[in-house]
Amino acid sequence: MTTPPAASKRLLAQRLLLPAECEAILWDMDGVLIDSLGLDIRVCNQLLKTHLGTDAPLSEAFIRSIFALHPPAFWQRIFEHLEELHGLTCPPASRDAILEHYEAARTETAFELLPGIPEILHAARLHGLRMAVVSNNTTRDVHAILERSGIHQAVDLVIGNDLEGFQKKPAPDGYLHAARQLGVEPARCVVVEDSLLGLEAGFRAGCHTVAVTTGGTPFDTLIGCGMANQVYAAFTPLLLSIQTGDIRKKQILTPNDFVSHMVEHIAWRLGMGIRLEWNNDQWTDLGRLLGAHLGQMPRHKDHAAALGMIDDGSAEIVIDLNTSHPEAEFIRGAGVDAEWFLGLRCEQASSGRPMWELMTGLAQGLKARIGVRLCSAEDPHHAWEGIFRTLGITLNRLLDPLPAPILHAEPRATPPAKEARFTIEEADLTRCKAVRITAESALTVIVDFSRASDHAFVFDVAESIAVGSLPDLLTRLADQAGFSLRVECHALALSSSHVVLEDTGLVLGRVLLEILKARMVATGVNGAGSSVQNPEDLNVPVRVGVSVEGRKFLCLVPLNDSRDALRQRFLVGQDVLHGIRSEDLDDFLDGLVGGLTASVVVHFQSIPEPESGWTQIFHQLGTALRETFAINPQRKGMPPGVKATLL
């Protein structure tokens, strides 16, 4: 690539974005330059077994949590952990021996460099950048480790934790001293760290801080600490290639799956295949890169607008390519407060800022003004999908896509596109099994009204997705409806919490529909039901009605409150039942309604507490489904609904 993705940054080895004013890189060592975490995970348990004979191994998660500490403090936490958790006391002599053998293993090991480090060190030298290593290890040990790892000659300076008069990290002393020794102002230094302790040291020193997850700290934790200017998942190459062709040929890898999904919407509406590998949280830079590529395409015209939507999210967008002030802005007048909307979490993102940064960068790279009018924001993820789908539609009216990749990396095999598949098996009056496989998930759902088997649930999803007590909710629904339920869900590619719940609801609804249609023909079935059976049921706080009519409709009705109040206090931004997102439970209902091709209405006497309210919805929905699926000989052969569309 001949130019960096942002005018204010330079790109080193296609892996690391640095401020243009950067004159020096100050590296932490463990977990940043070298893979010492792997050694800790392997060696710590060996040493404990040798010296203590313990069969109580340390978990990888625990070792990661203390990885940033210097060796004496690292082992002190281990000894405390063993005593607290297992009642094991390590004698002082054994402690000294363990620490001695551990430090010997570190200094005698030729550590592997972490991916991308050799290329970045080489590129930094070519750009004339000064470099130092600032570590929470002794200076002697750092020299030995760097020498054995083959990169000692790449750095100008080594600062250990044993310099007289200097405090260890998180104090800024080491980084301030390194900057002075190199003759560079701290503000022109970039600190690269993998831990909160190290980030605090670099932050307090006044340096530009870069965090990377190759040590012990997760991506979201590094972002949320407020001390990192940039966060990287790894120093892998940046790659973008977009070309006309099969739009199913897509590989989009970023540290934020929902941002990936928004990029996917743009490519999809432009009718283009895409391959994107982006290793950091600099979404504005990603937008600039994408916008610069799109800006190379021939134009049909300079102005375009579109209205787009997905489910209950809709937007209007206008793009002006003939402007001297490229920017993205929300257009007022649609009744949705932009700041409130941007502050809402969305899928795994804690707020909408990453998506808006992507939009802002795209406007800058495209050299366009993008005006966004958000018209419906019932659910943040549908609203964002509506925005980016509309953006893609508008771009398609402006541009003529061409196959012109602008970033190149070493060749990699592109995985074949996955074909969607939906298979119905064993459908009869009481039992049905369905298997649905898409590019995002693989789901198997079995419903059995004979209840010959027990409930069973498997959710194999990314760690960032909180399934929480979803099995308990599904059990409650199935018990009330009168069937046993088995669900197996695998969703690890482009993992998205709403995909897990919406797809589960969709396939469950489709399975139920097959049983209902079989009963409709063979025995007759009610086809409609509600949780209100007696006058006193009208006093129940949450009430549900179901009608299977061959069309999808979901409506949540607050009887004594405003729709906005229901959205803000119940539907959006609530965590319930051990971490399930309220938005995702709404998506489950939406999926169920779509699969069952039913109308479902939920009445709220007043807005309940989210925890109890969602439990009541699943309970009452199960009650309504029990009546819906009850056999009714008088309706044999008769489809539900006055239009008789369910045939």
Explain what the structure shows.
The protein is α/β, with parallel strands linked by helices and 647 residues long. It has 5 domains: 9-33 and 112-232, 3-Layer(aba) Sandwich (Rossmann fold), CATH 3.40.50.1000; 36-108; 239-398, Ribosomal Protein S5, domain 2 (2-Layer Sandwich); 421-505, Ribosomal Protein S5, domain 2; 522-635, 2-Layer Sandwich (Ribosomal Protein S5, domain 2), CATH 3.30.230.40. Helices cover 38% and strands 21% of the residues. The protein contains 19 helices and 26 strands. The strands form 7 sheets. The chain has a 6-stranded parallel sheet with strand order 5-4-3-6-7-8, sandwiched between helices. Helix 1 (36-52) packs antiparallel against helix 4 (92-108), helix 15 packs parallel to helix 19 and helix 16 (497-522) runs parallel beside helix 18 (582-596). The protein is globular. Residues 1-6 and 403-419 have low confidence and may be disordered.
The 3D shape can be described as: globular
Task: Report the end-to-end length measured between terminal Cα atoms.
Answer: 58 Å
| Fraction in helix | 25-40%
Q: Find the CATH topology of the largest domain.
A: Ribosomal Protein S5, domain 2
